[in-house]
Specification:
The complex is a heterodimer. By secondary structure, chain A is mainly alpha-helical. Chain A is built from 21 helices and 4 strands. By secondary structure, chain B is of the alpha+beta class. The chains are: A mainly alpha, B alpha+beta.
């Protein structure tokens, strides 16, 4: 059937010669596992494009909605966690694949004549991918996204002379807000994809014009070659399958939770960039004073220019690494520097006082369920339920909290707090958060003992159920915000 | 993959696997592509389709205590109905008619006339529900007494827990002789 259909099209569109051109491309020296990184990168890019399109089905790029829509995707849409997980881990995987691809091309001297243009287009693709990472990071509009982008855009502001204008153009205004989000969304999903697809096609077109470089030993390359299909295609396919399975397992097992909703007023939040920007983040910590703009701008521009012009800086025709000591030394130094910075940065991040993940999840749940509609924390929130500012001092028994959250009236007779539909884990997380609300002793204005307002205030007017008032209150608040 | 076996022009220097070796590579390639294809298609399609096919969830809304309801006399009650609209929850004000029965239970009517969807009202002098649009008249049990209404008033699911009335708000198609949920 498929064969007949193919023949039908072939007699009209003359597909066979096209198939031959695509599949019988000779690979000097034969197929090899070392050549899979380019295909792996392309595969991962396609995976990002596909999962990205599907994420856009439910994502809304507005500060009011972005966070809720991402949460909706993650928690309510069937397989939403999987699609988002693939997109998240795929973004990291594509960076690793690009890194390995770059490394292979560099070691094999494949950037040398006649492949200079292919190399330069490749560097352009690398920069586009980094921009994808930067713009995509803001979209969930959580604390990490907001503050990391705040720092990222502020770096642009430090460019001499034109920094102010540049940062305004990037943010779409004076400060990071609604226009930044819609801008980054449009860049991430419309502008960058168009550019990168053009770049990828150009990269592949040049590959077909100049052919793959093959092994670094030219003699070996001349002796034999092998068609692209079937062995190289088979190797590429196996690598793609392994990558897909690894990403699927990562998406399914390692949770990638949202931080709290972005809060421009909360300056206590310390943002962390994606791991592939960490080395740079660490480097900037060492640079201060007049050195700072140099490190922020001078160094990256120098490195990018160096990479772009590499084929012209290194005109030595020799491709064997053994005969290119300078190139290999430069690479080693570069890698040692990058990985040292990355290592220090990761170590420092681990040394930061860690928030118990259960507590952090509980905090998010507390906000999600609009607990402040009835309860208050340090003067903020409703007056219907007890003040929870120091509930951890008053009620130290985790079991009590768990039973109370499952069925408030069971441990607190007469309580009008509804039974929220919470899973066991959610109950536990909320209990962790409530237990952490301590510190009355340290607060001179309040003592643990004089906040005995543990009972619910009288329920005002009947008719409209209080639980609905919670929703209304939350809606009003959202509008006010 | 077309699986063609044509040798390229420079066959002297360019080799290509043939026979079972070639079939093995082609087979593995197809399996790998198939696994990725299915592994992506199944979650992606259900991701795109599931929310579209999901029925709107109707939940219990707490209306208030029933001890203030007069027995046998319909009372219009207002409440806020939270409707899930994708990622957002919209709060819509709704009204229902509640009639406390002598035995203590409560019957709740949808406020929409089953004829063509107008809002009817209670005529306390006449002790009848009357729809101003087309003149349908119902008695206190919802039975049609007069006018074009094709069916009795729609009864909404309700329950009384600890003296408080709970209602699930639903809408029914108008003009049919039996209630069909929208």
């Amino acid at each position: 059937m498929a064969g007949k259909l193919y023949d039908w099209f072939d007699t009209r569109l003359k597909l066979k010669p096209l198939g031959q051109t695509l599949l019988d491309e000779p690979i000097p020296g034969g197929a090899s596992w070392i050549y899979v990184f380019g295909s792996a990168t392309l595969f991962l890019f396609c995976l990002q494009a596909t999962t990205g399109m599907f994420l856009a089905l439910y994502y809304v790029p507005s500060p009011d909605a972005a966070y809720d829509t991402v949460q909706f995707i993650q928690q309510e849409v069937q397989f939403g966690w999987f699609v988002r997980g693939l997109h998240h881990w795929g973004a990291s995987a594509v960076m690793v694949a690009i890194g390995l691809h770059l490394l292979q091309v560099y070691l094999y001297g494949a950037y040398k004549r006649p492949r200079e243009v292919m190399w330069m287009v490749g560097i352009g693709l690398l920069l586009l991918m980094l921009t994808f990472g930067f713009t995509g990071y803001l979209l969930p509009w959580d604390q990490n996204a907001y503050w990391a982008t705040q720092v990222g855009t502020n770096m642009v502001a430090s460019v001499p002379f034109v920094g102010d204008i540049l940062v305004r153009l990037l943010r779409g205004g004076e400060s990071l807000g609604a226009l930044t989000l819609s801008r980054f969304f449009a860049l991430h999903t419309l502008f960058l994809p168009s550019l990168i697809v053009g770049g990828i096609l150009l990269h592949l077109f040049i590959l077909r014009r100049v052919g793959p470089a093959g092994p670094w030993n030219e003699e070996e390359a001349r002796q034999r070659s092998e068609t692209f299909y079937p062995r190289q295609v088979y190797m590429d396919a196996v690598v793609m399958l392994v990558l897909f399975l690894v990403l699927a397992v990562l998406a399914g097992t390692i949770e990638f939770p949202l931080a709290d909703r972005a809060d421009p007023a909360d300056h206590t939040f310390t943002p962390v960039p994606e791991w592939y920007f960490l080395f740079f983040y660490q480097l900037l910590k060492y640079m201060s004073g007049p050195l700072e703009p140099l490190a922020t701008w001078g160094l990256p521009i120098l490195v990018i220019l160096g990479l772009l012009l590499l084929p012209f800086l290194d005109r030595n025709k020799e491709r064997r690494p053994r005969s290119r000591p300078v190139a290999v030394f430069a690479l080693t130094m570069f890698l040692v520097t990058i990985f040292t910075l990355l290592g220090i940065s990761i170590r420092d991040l681990h040394a930061l006082p860690k928030v118990d993940p259960s507590l952090a999840r509980g905090k998010v749940l507390f906000a999600q369920h609009h607990c402040l509609a009835c309860h208050s924390l340090h003067g903020e929130g409703g007056k219907v339920g007890p003040d929870l500012s120091y509930v951890g001092d008053r009620r130290t028994d985790r079991d009590w909290h768990i039973r109370h959250l499952r069925d408030p009236a069971s441990v607190s007779p007469g309580s009008i707090m509804p039974k929220f539909p919470l899973s066991d884990r959610e109950v536990n997380d909320l209990a962790s958060f409530l237990l952490s609300l301590k510190g009355a002793a340290a607060d001179p204005t309040k003592g643990a003992l004089d906040t005995e307002a543990t009972e619910y205030a009288a329920v005002p007017s009947v008719g409209v159920a209080w639980s609905c008032r919670v929703c209304l209150w939350a809606e009003e608040r959202k509008e006010l915000l | 993959m077309t699986g063609h076996d044509a040798q390229p022009d420079d066959a002297l220097v360019t080799s290509t696997p043939v026979g079972t070796r070639r079939r093995f590579f082609a087979w593995v390639t197809k399996i790998a592509m198939g696994v990725i294809g299915v592994g992506l298609a199944v979650p992606l399609i259900s991701y795109a389709v599931a929310p579209a096919l999901k029925r709107r969830e109707s939940s219990w809304n707490e209306i208030g205590p029933i001890d203030q309801l007069p027995a046998g006399e319909p009372e219009q009650l207002e409440f806020v109905n939270s409707v899930k609209d994708g990622w957002r929850t919209a709060s819509v004000k709704k009204v229902v008619w509640a009639i406390k029965q002598p035995a203590g239970s409560v019957v709740v009517f949808s406020p929409i006339c089953p004829h063509l969807g107008c809002g009817f009202r209670w005529d306390s002098d006449d002790k009848k529900f009357k729809c101003p649009c087309h003149g349908s008249v119902y008695d206190v049990t919802g039975k049609v007494l007069d006018g074009p209404a094709p069916r009795p008033l729609d009864v909404l699911p309700s329950k009384v827990e600890q003296g408080r009335l709970w209602v699930t708000y639903k809408q029914y198609k108008s003009g049919l002789d039996r209630p069909v949920e929208l």
